[in-house]
Amino acid sequence: MASTRLRLLIDESVTEPLASLIIGLVPSAILSRITVGQGAKDHSVADYANRDRRTIVAIDSDFKK
């Protein structure tokens, strides 16, 4: 069952096949490379996620800082 309650922002560190799978399961998920821009700094991605009340999905550990 697809969830419409999750508000995910998929970071560009997530591979395209995995991002597509997540979007298939959670249609409300969006890609940071489209909404924030390819190569955007982590703080810009985090700022957008906070403003839009989204949870960041990332493979790298940069967001721990």
The rounded Rg comes to 11 Å
- Strand order across the biggest sheet? 2-1-3
Instruction: Supply the helix-strand structural class.
Output: alpha/beta
Sheet with most strands: 3 strands, parallel
Give the mean pLDDT: 90
Q: In sequence order, what are the helices and strands, one letter per element?
A: EHEHHE
User: Tally of extended strands?
Assistant: 3
Q: Strand fraction band?
A: 5-15%
Principal-axis shape equals globular
Distance between the termini: 34 Å
SS field, number of helical segments: 3
Fraction in helix: 40-55%
Uncertain stretches:
none
Detailed description of the structure:
The relative contact order is 0.27. The protein has helices at 16-25, 32-37, 42-51; strands spanning 8-10, 30-31, 55-57. 40% of the residues lie in helices and 12% in strands. The mean pLDDT is 90. It is α/β, with parallel strands linked by helices and 65 residues long.
